[in-house]
Amino acid sequence: MTAARSGPAFSVHDIPFSTQGSWFDISPVVAEKTYAEDLHLVSHQNGMHAVLRLTPLRPGTGDRADTRVEATPGLLSWVGGSGRVDLAYASPDTVRLRGSGLDLRISAAAQALTPFSGTYFFRDPAADAHVFTSYETGRRYRVTVLAGAVARTAGGQALGNGDRGLVTTAGADGSWEIALEELDASRPPYRSSAAFGETVASARRAFAGFLEAVAPWRSSTTPAAELAAYVLWSATVRPTGLVTRPAVLMSKHWMDKVWSWDHCFNALALAPGCPELAQDQFALPFDHQDPGGALPDSVTHSEVLYNFVKPPIHGWAHGHLRRRLPTPPSAAELAETYGRLERWTDFWLTARRAPGSELAHYQHGNDSGWDNATTFDPERVVVTADLAAFLILQVRELEDLAVELGRTDQAGRWARVAEDLRAALLDQLWTGEKFVARGAGTGNTWSSAGLLDLMPIVLGAHLPGDVSSALADRIKAHLTPYGLATELPTSPHYDADGYWRGPIWAPATVLVEDGLRRAGHHRLADDIGARFRSLCETHGFAENFDALTGTGLRDRAYTWTASSYLLLAEAHIRRGGK
To answer: What's the CA gap between 234 and 71, in Å, rounded?
Structure first.
């Protein structure tokens, strides 16, 4: 039964086992920062919900077996002294499991069943299968025995509290096999002519094809490229509910949404090899653009949130996206994007500019994407230099698109808007040494020890040379051996696990590296890129990292971190890096 290892091995404590298109994963992570003893089937429909507990047992005893878990992109295994259980995805909504020398208990994760919550369990005589129905996900989970037998069941048709589930055991040939499906109300009984080994081989081929598409440039100098590709591939879901397109979630842990700036980094990483998927990533939040032009804060299976927005990095991102796509977008596609970016920009220049103000403002740190950065300590409704810089780049992208679409008058208008914003940024927020923030209502100004104040470096060559040099010098002070700390480690507000008050983040790294390079500060950009690549190669693809130790923090399987690694690693290889 032993299958040869293929692809990078990883720990399911850090990265969930899943497949492209699936809305569920197999993981011990059952809630935010919560790890269970057993692996669970965890669904991300209607939120993150641990539905089923999977427990290997010693045959005939019902006792938990001592096993270790091994995972590669196509195969997950529980390996014990007397046997093993293997699991592979047959399709995005179906896994096959096969065991020898070990039984497997499949049980409802929640013991309580009420009229509004929990999981009901019964045997379906029409399909000759056992079914769990989950109030939380609104889906059914059907177990069909393909070989071996059901040793026992518990809690069939039971209400209230109690154990619910079944145990699979070997038949005369010493093995058992089942199919486990996530489905809606009904489906024909499960049938498959594919042997288990063929299922594993097919899953491996699917990932290998994706890997070759997104990272054909990989080499021994980019050792984390395969695992980064797996993080992206396994976090992708098919269109369902409010998710209008194939979507790369930020994670199949608890950060299981698409936030309206995170998606840009995934789009850029996917663009050369998976152009359709990349364009879907860029467009998805725009599918939910409100009548006033604002993008939602986030989109997931069953909710779209508008209580905050995210920063307008989309002009910056689209400019890079167009250059990375193997085939340029058509005129019709550019026209659609132009209209969406125009409405998004007009939102900032109308709803987010106070009367008489030339510069837009955030209403909370969450709007900036840097939720609790120290820039927002004095006030939350704030005019900041990073926002002005992003808008300038977005307006420049609109100018370029207007030229390409033959809309000369509009191109001229956008050129004037960009220059007016640039003049206002330098006149009102640049002190001669640094950028300051300004209260949108009070007019008070201040600076911080946060990296956010230095983000106007994204303007690159659009900045005067003395300004970009001053920013570069200040950026150097944020460099630790692992990368760019979001708060100076010498600051009294520095917090090792303080979210945007110290840890290293992927998006800030990519934006700063790109801006420095376009401003001519190549050596510093190279240094920042190298440190971040080394960080990921050592500590994985966490949501963020301790700036002084490199330890991964928070959600440990974050796609924009994986995408940022792929972007920086590819660029390093293209520049002839070794």
So the answer is: 13
For the segment 280-304, what is each residue's pLDDT rounded down to a tens digit?
A: 999 999 999 999 999 999 999 999 9
Structure tokens at 222: 């980019």
- Angle 275-283/262-270 helices, nearest 10 degrees? 170
Residue 406: partners with Cβ closer than 8 Å, 6 or more residues away: none
Contact assessment for residue 462 and residue 471, using Cβ atoms and an 8 Å cutoff: no
Q: Quickly tell me which residue has 């994986």 as its tokens.
A: 562
Question: Using an 8 Å Cβ cutoff, are 460 and 518 in contact?
Answer: yes
Instruction: At 503, list the tokens.
Output: 């840890």
Q: Is 518 left (phi over 0), alpha (psi -120 to 50) or beta?
A: alpha
Q: Which of 512, 552, 522 is nearest to 535 (CA)?
A: 552
Q: Where are the alpha helices (DSSP H) in 162-290?
A: 196-214, 225-234, 262-270, 275-283
Q: Residue 138 has what DSSP assignment?
A: S
Compute CA distances 177 → 1, 67, 105, 147, whole Å.
12, 19, 13, 5
Residue 463 has pLDDT above 90, yes or no: yes
pLDDT per residue as tens digits for the range 395-409: 999 999 999 999 999
What pTM, to 2 d.p., does this model score?
Answer: 0.96
Give first-to-last CA distance, the chain, whole Å.
Answer: 40
Question: What is the average per-residue pLDDT within 346-355?
Answer: 97
Residue 276 β-bridge partners: none
Q: Helix 331-350 crosses helix 314-324 at what angle (to 10 degrees)?
A: 170
